[in-house]
């Protein structure tokens, strides 16, 4: 057992998850300002090996292990988090205007399941605030921009919202993710419609093509899609030539949880992440990879709590992997363990 799991996590888990999140951010910020701490952190957690380098959609990743969107929503900590050995960090979800998100409490631990349920609702400070933070990029890590729409807008404005964020963020991120699968924002049904996705992707690609330097664009999908819906995703990628897919977002499925019905009723709606969605996410990756004959890149995320979990995603067809809930439950050593395990397979 690591120091994190025996000492730090039990203390953190006594308190409200959202408050702990911001407390942790403050602590990392403060510590990283002490001379030598960043270098020490890198020496503990970073695995430097050219064999881990991964070339994908025109980007060279130092290693295939990233931090998923939702952790550093406003791009306030990506420079410091880079010291923990990540090959890439995805900021966001970023919307055009800042918004509070859903009412609190909105983040819940399922300790027995090693999962989290959240209904944050795209709380973020808006694209301009994210840009101000991204201007301080020290170039230590690849940064992805996960983008979405503001919540209370008319249906006909959805595409414009995505386009506004895309255009504004374009000079500051290395790749984009269209978040069309978050279950915690109202009026998202349209975003799962194939015809609408064709419209959205075409609009964003048009903006991308007008730039001197194009950015890769990926689509983030839910783990709850059936095979017919996944077939549509494969067709969509072939039709639009979008650069790849992230599989997967959080789940609304509650099957097989150890948490009691009473506890789940107390929590209410939200997206489930962590160990309970591991197998569903891996199955989604495998289906997409097999059905498409591995014709497009896949980033695998969902329930990675160990090196083996990450290797399973890669074996299923993922080119890169991302952690989030596993990072919270297992601690920062998880990234190093995954990278070392990947090296052993090369």
TrEMBL record:
Q: Which domain of life is it from?
A: Bacteria
> Which residues belong to any copy of the Dihydroorotate dehydrogenase catalytic domain?
52-346
- Cofactor descriptive note: Binds 1 FMN per subunit.
- The residues listed in the UniProt record as binding FMN, with positions renumbered to this chain, are 69-73, 93, 146, 179, 220, 248, 274, 303, 324-325
According to its UniProt record, what is one Pfam family this protein matches?
A: DHO_dh
Record note on quaternary structure: Monomer.
Identify this protein by name.
Dihydroorotate dehydrogenase (quinone)
Origin organism lineage:
Bacteria, Pseudomonadati, Bacteroidota, Flavobacteriia, Flavobacteriales
């Amino acid at each position: 057992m690591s120091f994190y799991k025996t000492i730090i996590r039990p203390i953190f888990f006594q308190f409200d998850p959202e408050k702990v999140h911001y407390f942790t951010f403050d602590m990392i910020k403060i510590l990283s300002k002490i001379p030598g701490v960043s270098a020490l952190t890198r020496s503990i957690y970073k695995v430097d090996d050219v064999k881990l380098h991964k070339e994908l959609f025109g980007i060279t990743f130092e290693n295939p292990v990233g931090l998923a969107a939702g952790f550093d929503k406003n791009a306030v900590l990506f420079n410091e988090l880079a010291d923990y050995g990540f090959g890439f960090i995805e900021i966001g979800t970023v919307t055009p205007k800042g918004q509070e998100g859903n009412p609190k409490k909105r983040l819940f631990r399922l300790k027995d399941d090693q999962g989290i349920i959240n209904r944050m609702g795209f709380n973020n400070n808006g694209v301009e605030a994210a840009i101000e933070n991204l201007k301080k990029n020290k170039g230590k890590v690849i940064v992805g921009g996960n983008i979405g729409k503001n919540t209370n807008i008319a249906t006909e404005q959805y595409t414009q919202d995505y386009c506004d964020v895309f255009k504004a963020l374009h000079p500051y991120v290395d790749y984009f993710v269209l978040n069309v699968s978050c279950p915690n924002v109202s009026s998202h049904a349209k975003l799962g419609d194939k015809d609408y996705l064709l419209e959205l992707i075409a609009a964003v690609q048009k903006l991308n093509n007008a730039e001197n330097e194009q950015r890769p664009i990926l689509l983030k999908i839910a783990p709850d899609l059936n095979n017919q819906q996944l077939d549509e995703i494969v067709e969509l990628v072939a039709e639009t030539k979008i650069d790849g897919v992230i599989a997967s977002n959080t789940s609304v499925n509650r099957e097989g949880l150890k948490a009691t019905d009473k506890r789940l009723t107390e929590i209410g709606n939200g997206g489930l992440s962590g160990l309970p969605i591991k197998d569903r996410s891996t199955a989604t990756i495998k289906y997409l990879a097999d059905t498409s004959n591995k014709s497009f890149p896949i980033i695998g995320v969902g329930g990675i709590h160990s090196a083996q979990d990450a290797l399973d995603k890669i074996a299923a067809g993922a080119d890169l992997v991302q952690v989030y809930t596993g990072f919270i439950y297992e601690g920062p050593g998880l990234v190093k363990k995954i990278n070392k395990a990947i090296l052993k397979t090369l």
